[in-house]
Structure formats: C-alpha cells, structure tokens
Amino acid sequence: MSKTSLVAGLLVALWPLSSIAHDHGAPSAGGSTPAEAETGSLREENARSYFTDLPVIAQDGKERRFYSDVLKDKVVLIYLFFSNCENTCPVINQTLSNVQDLLGDRLGTDITLISITTDPARDTPSVVKEYSEYFDPRPGWLFLTGERQNIEAIVRRLGHTSPDPTSHTTFLMVGNVAKAKWTKLKPTASEAEIAQMLRLLADDPKG
User: Fold this and answer.
1) pTM for this structure?
2) Nearest CA among 207, 180, 203 for reference residue 31
3) How far apart are CA 146 and CA 44, in angstroms?
4) C-beta separation of 76 from 107 below 8 A
C-alpha cells in the first residue's frame, strides 16, 4: 500500500488539539534560526500547558510527569481504556501488543504507545499492572493511571469529557508531539497500518 493511500484510508481527520496542533513551517536547510528556535520553545510550552504535566503512574509503579516524561519529543499513540471493559478495550490493546512487535527497536526510543485508563477510581496502580500483563508490554508501551483528579484532567484534554468511563472514544490518537501534528486512526486499522503511520510521523522531515 502506498503512503498516500494509507493516509487517505486511515485518517479520520486532521485533529487540532487546541492551539498546539499548528504547523509553524519547516526549519531552514542550514539549521534553526533564532526565530525558529523561539517558535519551537513556544510550541513546547503550549503543549505542556495543554496536555498538562501532571504526575501519572505506569504499570512499573514509577511516577512520571505526563508531558515531560511521557510525551515530550516523542511520536505517540494514545488509547483510552478501562480494565472492566470486556469488548473493545482488550481487542484494541491486543492490537497494540502486535503493533509493538512491528515497531522493533523504535518502540521506547522515538515512538511510545500509551494506554490511559478512564476509570482511575477502580484502575489503581496494582490493577493496571495486572491488566497490562495480559498484553506483555515491552519498554516503550505505558499503561497509565494515577490520582483520580490528575487522570480525569488529562483524559478531558484527550476528548473524554463524560463522567462515565465506558463512554470513552475508541479512536487511536496519534501524534508527533514536537511538531504538533496530530490525527486520529480508526479503531479498525490493522497492526501493519498503525505501525506504518507511526513510522511516517517519526520520519516526517517537516518541522
């Protein structure tokens, strides 16, 4: 499948996340100018403010800051789940388990998979740890939970505005954080298609 047909078939829409999803143009061939460096810095601060830098807890029990430690400078795929989901959530997380194998050593370096619970009250760190083990996540795939108010603030920014954890979106949110380029993939996308889209974003030479 060509890159063009892949993009046409999988992208639901270009997905601006507030003011951060804005392409400020490519850097010059000779390197970043002071103005471009300032733009990059502003873009990072906008992203940090939008996504928040609240603490989260991964399946390894370690606390991380959501922007600084999880998102910054990464190409990411974000999926919202809850552990009591018996239908869609385990199917999509199993898809991501297959995707991680296709990404090879790029997983955990420039590409990160992120599964975030929408039900932090029940999905405590121990519950999320046990749940994650069903999918055998490698380094570079994080299952996140944390204090209820922190997780609820984060998932609101990701489009989950309902108090009901079961009403979360099933789309896969994919983005190049440093370049503020975001889109959504259909949940029916195949493992190969998801992996290829992540590689396209990671290899995008445009700034």
Assistant:
1) 0.81
2) 207
3) 24
4) no
